[in-house]
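A reminder from the course coordinator: this example appears on the midterm review sheet, so study it carefully.

Given structure:
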């Protein structure tokens, strides 16, 4: 594998923060980029809470906030990624957000740098084409919460080279993660199924077939899932879920991916799930439902 010491992380939201913690746990230096100082300040504060939580849940691999911050550069300058040996992009799930980033990365990063796209559904092939070196671009679909999830869905795009696949797998292995490689297609394997399930569960609540709590309980108590689809949606972020299902709807032109109006309504109302304190369930009080 090419020598990776410094990793650029774009986006300091739910996933960018998770990736940052996992990278620091593995000893990498991180350059974390987001749009504004204010967002970076909020992320820094959130990271302080995140590492405390991970230290309780997985004490063996924990890092303190001081250890994390000592080798993490927080910046609004994408140009800082000129120093990165590998980049993981975790910006908002919107083509209009990701597109300019990839166009700029091609001019900023060294030509040998592997760029990993962490997206829920957007085409890796199309993003790779923006860089002029699509052979170095690969999908790295981390699961949330990143430090606690053992496996990553790796997506081979049309032009991704075999050596980029090898680098990605070795890099993930160095983070203690297994990888499962699939070919590029909207939503890949996981989210083509998962987003449809979440959307359909939202329709069940929307149509009054069952409450959100009972819908989830059926998956947990009958199927043995650790979490129902709606609580999973809250964990992902309902804004990200809606953007992802919209990508699937646009790509497949298939009405089965039509976003549930209840999902749209919750997002419009600012109820984005766990990160906003309320989604299908409330995270401010013990009272769920
Ligand atoms: P988020 O909304 O929590 O965070 C996105 C971050 O990107 C925000 O902090 C935003 O300010 C930043 N951003 C927007 N434009 C930017 C730019 N030009 N430069 C730098 N930063 C920019 O979203 P989340 O959940 O972290 O998702 C990020 C990506 O990861 C999305 O593509 C999503 O589909 C994917 N993903 C999300 C998962 C989840 O469970 N939330 C799981 C796996 C992938």
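Designed residues:
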């Amino acid at each position: 594998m090419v020598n990776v010491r410094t990793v650029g992380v774009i986006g300091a939201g739910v996933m960018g923060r998770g990736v940052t913690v996992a990278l620091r746990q593995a000893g990498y230096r991180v350059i974390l980029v987001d749009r504004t100082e204010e967002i970076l300040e909020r992320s820094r504060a959130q990271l302080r809470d995140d590492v405390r939580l991970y230290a309780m849940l997985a004490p063996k691999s924990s890092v303190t906030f001081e250890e994390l911050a000592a080798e993490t550069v927080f910046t609004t300058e994408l140009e800082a990624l000129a120093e990165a040996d590998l980049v993981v992009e975790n910006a908002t799930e919107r083509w209009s957000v990701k597109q300019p980033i990839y166009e700029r990365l091609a001019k900023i990063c060294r030509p040998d740098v592997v760029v990993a796209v962490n997206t829920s559904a957007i085409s890796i092939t199309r993003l790779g084409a923006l860089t002029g070196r699509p052979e170095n671009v690969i999908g790295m679909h981390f699961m949330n919460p990143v430090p606690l999830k053992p496996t990553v869905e790796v997506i081979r795009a049309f032009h991704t080279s075999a050596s980029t696949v090898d680098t990605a797998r070795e890099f993930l292995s160095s983070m203690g993660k297994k990888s499962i490689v699939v070919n590029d297609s909207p939503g890949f394997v996981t989210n083509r199924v998962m987003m449809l399930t979440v959307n359909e569960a939202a329709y069940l609540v929307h149509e009054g077939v069952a409450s959100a709590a009972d819908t989830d309980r059926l998956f947990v108590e009958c199927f043995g899932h650790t979490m129902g689809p709606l609580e999973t949606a809250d964990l992902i972020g309902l804004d990200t879920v809606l953007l992802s299902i919209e990508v699937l709807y646009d790509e497949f032109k298939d009405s089965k991916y039509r976003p549930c109006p209840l999902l749209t309504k919750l997002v419009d109302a600012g109820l984005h799930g766990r990160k906003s304190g309320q989604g299908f369930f409330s995270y401010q009080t013990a009272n769920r439902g």
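Residues 10-16, 33-35, 39, 90-93, 97, 101, 118-120, 141-142, 144, 236-237, 240, 244 surround NAI (CB under 6 Å). Residues 37-57 form the longest helix (21 residues).
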